[in-house]
Each structure stands twice: as structure tokens, then as C-alpha cells.
Design brief:
The protein has 136 residues and is α/β, with parallel strands linked by helices. The protein has a domain of 85 residues: Nucleotidyltransferase, domain 5. 35% of the residues lie in helices and 17% in strands. Strands 4-3-2-5-6 form a 5-stranded mixed sheet. β2 and β3 form a beta hairpin. The longest helix is centred in the first third of the chain and has 20 residues. It is elongated and about 95 Å long. The chain starts with 15 loop residues before the first helix and ends with a strand. 10% of the residues are buried.
Length: 136
């Protein structure tokens, strides 16, 4: 019976190149999958279009005003008083608090300005208006 000596064994090698390939694949997969999840928590609305619209990814509150005048916070309907109270409480916790309003283009302009005025009365000064890209 022949016994192999310990010095005759090769050290196991770690193949790093396939591991790097897998990590890059996972990185690309998660980056692409998160791009499609940006608008999942919104209500469909016919927004006006603008050529020079900017995309902001660090929005705290996304408020939607539908054509019938109803208010939605992300994907849940909410009344105006609750929206203002929750926004005011959130602003006290987060100094970078911002509200983006997605208003239907057929909605009366006065209703949008009225909501912005109520946000301002509550001390919320960072807000924006959302548009669809690709305007005329």
C-alpha cells in the first residue's frame, strides 16, 4: 500500500475571474431592475410634456392630482388635511424634505396653485411639478 506524502498535494486555487463576472452580472441586473421600479407607486395621470424636464430621484413625497381633483400620496388616496399634516410632520424630521406634484394637464391651474399655497402655509418650501419628457 502506497501512501502519498503531504508535500505532493497542490494548493487549491481560487478562480477570481468567474466570480468577478458573476458580480458584474448581478450589479447590472439590479441596476436595470431598479430603473423599472421608479414609477410603480404612482397613479396613472395624463401629465403635460416638457422638453427640458429633469429627473429627480430623491423625492420624499410624490403627490398626484387627478383630473377629478382627488389627491393621491404615491398610490393611496388621501384627503388634503391629512396630506398637509403628514407632510408637515415629515418636514420636521427631514430637513431635505421635498414634495413633487404630478397634476393632470386637464386640471384647473388654480387647483394646483392652491395646493402649492397650502404647502407653503405649512412651511414646506421645497416642491416641484412633474412633467413627461419629450415635449413639443
Amino acid at each position: 500500500m502506497r501512501i502519498k506524502s503531504r508535500h505532493g498535494f497542490d494548493k487549491p486555487e481560487v478562480m477570481i475571474i468567474p466570480m468577478i463576472d458573476i458580480m458584474f452580472f448581478l450589479l447590472v441586473f439590479f441596476m436595470l431592475s431598479t430603473l423599472y421600479m421608479v414609477n410603480l407607486k404612482t397613479v396613472p395621470v395624463n401629465m403635460p410634456q416638457a422638453q427640458h424636464a429633469e429627473t429627480q430621484m430623491n423625492v420624499t413625497y410624490l403627490v398626484t392630482m387627478k383630473a377629478d381633483g382627488s389627491l393621491w400620496l404615491e398610490d393611496k388616496i388621501i384627503n388634503e388635511r391629512d396630506l398637509l399634516n403628514r407632510a408637515k410632520a415629515e418636514q420636521k424630521k427631514n430637513p431635505k424634505f421635498a414634495v413633487v406634484i404630478r397634476a393632470d394637464q386637464s386640471l384647473d391651474y388654480g387647483m394646483v396653485v392652491g395646493l402649492l399655497d397650502k404647502f407653503k402655509a405649512e412651511g414646506i418650501t421645497k416642491f416641484g411639478l412633474a412633467t413627461d419628457a419629450g415635449g413639443k
